[in-house]
Amino acid sequence: MTEVNKLVQVAGIIDAAEADLCIGEGADWLGFALRLPSGKDDIPEQDAAAIIKGLEAPHAGVLISYLTDAEEVSRFCDELGVVAVQLHGDVETEQLRLLKELRPELFVLKSLVVKEDNADELLKLVDDTHPFVDMYITDTFDPKTGAKGATGLTHDWNVSAELVRRSPKPLMMAGGLNPENVYDAIRTVKPAAVDAHTGLEGPDGRKDRAKVAKFVAEARRAFDEIG
Ligand SMILES: O=C(O)c1ccccc1N[C@@H]1O[C@H](COP(=O)(O)O)[C@@H](O)[C@H]1O
C-alpha cells in the first residue's frame, strides 16, 4: 500500500475508463461509493469489484460507505477486495473497535463532517475513536439538503487545521476540493492526504482529464512544499 502520506485520492469512480483516467493522471487511491442510502449507486458492485481487483499496488480501491455495522462492513470489503474503507455514517465507537478486531489489516478512514459550529464535537469524536481509526477524512455538511458527502462544498479550513493538529492519526482533507483550491488547502491545513469527487467532474458528470491532472499536480506541488 502507498505510504499514507502525501496521498491523492479521487472519489466517485463510475466505470473502468474513469478509473484508468485517474490512475493515468497520477491518483493514488480510487474511492467507490456503494450501497448509498439513496439506493442509486453510480456503479454496479460487481463492476467496482472488477476494477478494484485489477489495481496494482501502490494503487488501491477504497470503499466509501454509510454502513455502520462492523461485520457487514467487513463482509462487503471482502466481496470487493478493498484494502481500505471510508465510513461516512454515524458509526458507534464500539463498532469501530470491533471492525479493527475483526480486520486489523483493513485501513479504516472515519469521516469528520464539518458543520457551522461542531468543531468541539469533532475533536471529542477523535479523542474517543482514534485507537480504532487509521486516518480521518473531513467532509462538508450541506445544511440545505442535509447531505454529508460529495457536496462539492468547502468548509472552514481552520477547523480542518485544528483537527490535523489535535488528531493522533493522520487526516485526509476532503470537501469541495478542486484543481484551483487544493494547493492553498494543503498549505493551510497540512493534511496527510487529499480527496475530491465533484470538483473533478466535467459538465457531463464524468471525471475531466485536465481537472484530474491539474488536481494531482497541484496537490503534489503543495505536498512537496510543506515537506
Ligand atoms: O463520492 C461519493 O459519491 C460520496 C457519497 C457519499 C458520501 C461521501 C462521498 N464521497 C466523499 O465526499 C468527499 C467530498 O466530495 P466533494 O469533493 O466535495 O464532491 C469526497 O472526497 C469523497 O470522499
UniProtKB/TrEMBL annotation:
Keywords: Amino-acid biosynthesis, Aromatic amino acid biosynthesis, Isomerase, Tryptophan biosynthesis. It comes from the Bacteria. Pathway: Amino-acid biosynthesis; L-tryptophan biosynthesis; L-tryptophan from chorismate: step 3/5. The keyword Isomerase applies. Coiled coil: none annotated. One of its GO terms (biological process) is L-tryptophan biosynthetic process. Pfam families: PRAI. GO terms for molecular function: phosphoribosylanthranilate isomerase activity. The keyword Amino-acid biosynthesis applies. Residues 39-217 form the N-(5'phosphoribosyl) anthranilate isomerase (PRAI) domain. CDD domains: PRAI. Its EC number is 5.3.1.24. SUPFAM superfamilies: Ribulose-phoshate binding barrel. It catalyses: N-(5-phospho-beta-D-ribosyl)anthranilate = 1-(2-carboxyphenylamino)-1-deoxy-D-ribulose 5-phosphate. Belongs to the TrpF family. HAMAP family: PRAI. This is N-(5'-phosphoribosyl)anthranilate isomerase. It comes from Streptomyces fradiae ATCC 10745 = DSM 40063. The lineage of its organism: Bacteria, Bacillati, Actinomycetota, Actinomycetes, Kitasatosporales.
